[in-house]
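Quick one: structure tokens for this chain, please?
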Amino acid sequence: MKFKYSKYVPNPLDELDMDELLSRLSDLLLSSGFDNPWDPSGGMDRTLQALHDAILEALFSGGVLPPDVIEKLFGSQAEGTDDDIRDQLEQLIRQIVQRMQESGYISPAPDLQAEQARRRRGAGPGDGDPGDVHFEVTDKALDFLGYKALRDLLGSLGHSSAGRHDTRDLATGVETSGAPKPYEFGDTLNIDATATILNAVSRHASGRSAGDRQGGDAGPDAPARRAAGAGPGYQPEPGQAPSVATSGIDIDYQDLMVAQGEYQSSCATVLMLDCSHSMILYGEDRFTPAKRVAMALAHLIRTQYPGDTLQAVLFHDSAEEIPIRELGRVRVGPYYTNTREGLRLARRLLEKQRKDMRQIVMITDGKPSALTQPDGRIYKNAFGLDPFVIAETFAEVSACAKAGIMINTFMLARDYDLVAFVRRVAAMCRGKAYFTTPYTLGQYVLMDYMDRKTKTVH
């Protein structure tokens, strides 16, 4: 057998940090329409050309490839002409896109209209402009971006992990933190073996002492006492089944002791996201950071608070519930802010949950400007705080308070009238009002969720 050796040519993809690349591309993958605010649903930033440009920027901004590899491939140490280096760069980007597809982070989206146009022109299926080809973000990529957002936010807060919601009550949980107690019907069978065996030994010892005082092993119940441990040389009669006590300690119902742990409550949360048009206007993208925080909160609940529930509600001209897995794909919607309809839908969802704590986390940047009337028509007024809209919104806040639902509002604006409105909402339902920015929103939301522990149950 002959072997043919050739010069080893290193592949830059071997040095590629795919996790870092996805983090750099998160703004593109979670885009909310900020690049095209007047047509946010067009999806023009989900083209392969936009992905190509984002990868190109990520490669040279540092962190995705080691600096020495960048210098060797495209710097002063690169071999070949400028055209050769350019072709090598284009080939590398195509390989990265292919690697992302093979890893399951993106998938090509079918462009039926473009394909029909090409067929009418008589062109082949691959003759179109690559810049017009779109891609879709997969659930795997969104799950990773949620984990990455959670890790970054908790790292900036100084927390490496989070537990469940603690209270001042004791219960027969899994983690032992209190003195054992006698078992009662309904307790979790978290048996304290040491205390249980000690009870059984003490009971047997007291029984033997009473038997000795009454005449030792004499009497008709002597075999039973010996079976309970009184006679070390006791053997069962022929044909008699051996007693359990001959091989251990006879544990009775009254001997059972269960360990007590801190009672950990469960929480039902509805995340209300304002997706009105103002979230991407005025020179700032507020909706993409809000989506990133929502995904981080969903990942936190799924991994650290398995007993909690999280549901998502979008509110704009009206309101609707969306699956949690679709948070990363949501884009801004119609123009107005129907806060009352969002609160009403969130309250209906929470009233179905049987949890110790129920809360609404509302992230918004604008004042209520729309209202759904009984006949289904939507009343709209974008100028100032309309008294009719505000009164109906406060009525829904009062209904949430009567249902025991707390509303925590995270406001991305600081208008004087809006501040007063948000503070009154917080006062009516014993919630909190946070006036923050898109850059600090995640810290406030996660810290509030984890710090509620003993403040809302008792």
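The longest helix spans residues 82-102.
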